[in-house]
Each structure stands twice: as C-alpha cells, then as structure tokens.
Amino acid sequence: LLSATTRRSLLKFRHMSGANVRTMATIQEAVAKRVPEWRADIKDLRAKHGDKVLCEVTVDQAIGGMRGIKGMITETSLLDAEEGIRFRGYSIPECQKLLPAAPGGEEPLPEGLFWLLLTGEIPTEEEVKGLSAEFAKRAVIPAHAEEMICNFPKEMHPMTQFCSAVLALQTESAFAKAYMGGNVPKTEYWTYVLEDSLDLIAKLPAVAAMIYRNKFKEGKLIEADPSLDWGANYAHMCGYDDPGFIELMRLYLTIHTDHEGGNASAHATHLVGSTLSDPYLSFCGGMTALAGPLHGLANQEVLRWLIKFKEDLGGKEVTKDSIRDACWATLNSGNVIPGFGHAVLRKTDPRYMCQREFALKHMPEDEMFKLVSTLYEVVPDVLNQTGKVKNPWPNVDAHSGVLLQYYGFTEAEYYTVLFGVSRAMGVLASLVVDRVLGLPLERPKSLTTEWIRNNFEK
Prior knowledge:
- The protein has helices at about 5-15, 25-50, 60-65, 90-100, 110-120, 125-135, 145-150, 160-170, 175-180, 190-215, 230-240, 245-255, 265-275, 280-290, 300-310, 320-330, 350-360, 365-385, 395-405, 415-435, 450-455, and strands spanning about 75-80, 85, 90.
- By secondary structure, the protein is mostly helical.
- It has a three-stranded antiparallel sheet.
- Helix 13 (about 265-275) packs across helix 20 (about 415-435) and helix 15 packs across helix 19.
- Mean pLDDT is about 90; it is low at about 10-15 and about 15-20.
C-alpha cells in the first residue's frame, strides 16, 4: 500500500504532466499573470451571453430568503446540490490529494487552498512554503489593536471581539490610503486589495489567539513561531501543540474557507466590498453575518445539543434504537435536530465526510464520535419519515465540535472565531477577483408586498 504522501506525490505528477512546469512565483506574480486572461474572458462572456436569462424568480423565492436565485458571480467556488463544493473546479477529496501538506503531515495546508482560490492553479510545495513565510512576515499586530484586544471585557462574546479587532486593524489599509490619495486607476485597485488581504489573513491567527487566551486562559499570551505554517502557528498561539490537533486545525481551516458566494458571510463581504470599502471593513461585514445563530454560530449550537442529547439518554447505551427514540422525542417536543440539512445541498456535506474520515483515523473509540456516527446512520431516515425535510443529511457543523472537544479545545463559544479565520481566505480571495474583474456596486431591486399583489391580482 502506498503512503498518503506517496499518493499525493503521484497525483501531483499526473496533474502536472502534459503542462508546462512553471517556475516558483509569489502570490502577487501568480495573480498578475492571470489578470489579462480573466478580464478578456469576462468581456467575451458579456459580449456573447450578456442578454441571456439565468433564471426566473418566483414570489416564494423573493419572500423566502432568495433561495435558488442565480444573481451574482463568484469565481472561487461553486456549490452543487448533489456533489457539494468545488474549489476552482476541485472537490474536497481532490484538494486533499493535490494540495501540499506539511512535512510529515497528511492534511492540506490552508495556504495551498488560498493560492488555488486566488489564482485557479494548484501551487507547488515551494510556492506554499513561500506564502507561509509571507504570512509570517506580515503577522505583527499594531500596538493600538493589541492594547484594545487585551482590554476587552471578559464577558464580551469572542465574535464581537473578533469583529472589533478587525476594525481596529483597518488603520493599516493600503487600499484606503491609496484611494484617498486619488491617483490609483481602477484597473489597479486589485493590487491594493490583495496587499490588504495578505496583511489581514496573516494577522488573523494572532488576533484570534489573543482573544482566546485573554478570554479563556487568564490573558497568558503565547508568542508566535514564524517557522510554523499558518494553521500550526494558530494552534500553537492558542496553546495546542499536539500533532493530531495541528493536523485537525489544518483540515478545519481548509474546508471552511469558501462555500460559493451566496452564503451570508461571503455575500456580505462581497456586498460591502462592492461599495469600494477596503478589505478590513468588507471582511468585518462578513464576520458580523457569520456571528448569527443561523450561520457560523451553528457549530457551537450543534455541540451543545449533542452534549444535552447524551445527558438525556440517561446512561443508556448508544444504539440505533435508543438514538431513534430520542430523535423522535426531540422532534415531537417541537424542537429540531441541528447539524442536519442545508439550504443548497441535497446529500451529505463533503466537509462532514472528510471530518468523519479524520475521526475514524484518529479517534474511532471516542464516545462523542460514536454518538455522532450513530446519528449519521439514524437521523436521515427519521427526518425522511416526517415528510417535511428536503435534505435530511448532515452538514459540516454536525461534526466539527466533537473533533475539537476530543483534543481539549472545549470552549464552544469560541468556535465561530475559528470559522471566521478560515472563511477569511475564501471571501478575501473573492474580493480580490471582484476588483480584478471590475464588478460594480451591487444594487438589486426590491419590491413591496403591495406591489406584488397589485401586479398579480389585476
């Protein structure tokens, strides 16, 4: 049997064969190379298909959260209802095989996925190593921001701290300074947005770790280790150096980066960015959306539900029958089973599956994993029997909390910050592409219910 490292090397060789072997580039050079091609492509697309109809919109869709309406462009990823997410055309299993891993590790490095999202190309190991070093150089937190973070009241929610800290970093925005200077052509906006994005992504692990240590670890901060990759350094600054946890962090930060452009955090970042707010302000807009219980807070809600669910079993053995009875009791009491279903997906979330594979490899006998695993086998059938659920399958939130708990990362209130650090890579890559393509201010048309009645009841 081939090791995971050997399989990855063979797949990369196959992936690169037949293509020109490129020399190592910086991320700035890699994006700059693609800019003329992308601009020519979107110009051609509009010339050939600008008047084509993408979809019709029903009143139900307009009232029901615009579900299913095709009305925006996001190049970094595409979500298929049956297949799940693809990052620049690559599925999660393909990314796990093709993207570089840390020496001795098996999970892909988040830096590699950021490169892919931003450029559309699978990076080399040297390019990822160079990007890790670039992030390490840019990671210093301004003194005023550090002082502010360290003085947040301990009762302030971690996501409120996170959003406030991002706004404090806005003083460093290269885009804001260049725009106020008034001498930057629109065709060059993307270069400043990229600089801001690299700076912000580089600083987020230190900011997030500082919030974690201040709130949960008596303010005892841990210095960064610039020799580590982005995800490993984040784990280290939080106080976790277990190799298994570091691998989990790399996986978590990779799979939560992007989920096409219509989800609340991605859409909010795009919307704010379309006003030419800089990446700091735009990302903060996305993070305030992520902080909502129906979006990023869902993972901590799932974990709390799982813990209570286990308590309610009252020591009964976790079997399919006991789980089935408990699920029906939950539904019959008017409550929902969190972590199951998705607004777009109509099958098990691939992000759930790769976390399940991680658990089977690293923690197969863990009691909470056994509970999650049994729920995976039982809940879809229970939900199908209600006749009310379009997608009964587990989503990404159904698993992540249990993995973090296993390694002692038990502060569920903080989990959305982890999500936010990861999501930065997706939404900021997308923001750079928005400025490359010169996408305009987003301004859809809204209607009143009276207008709808008058239009259809004549």
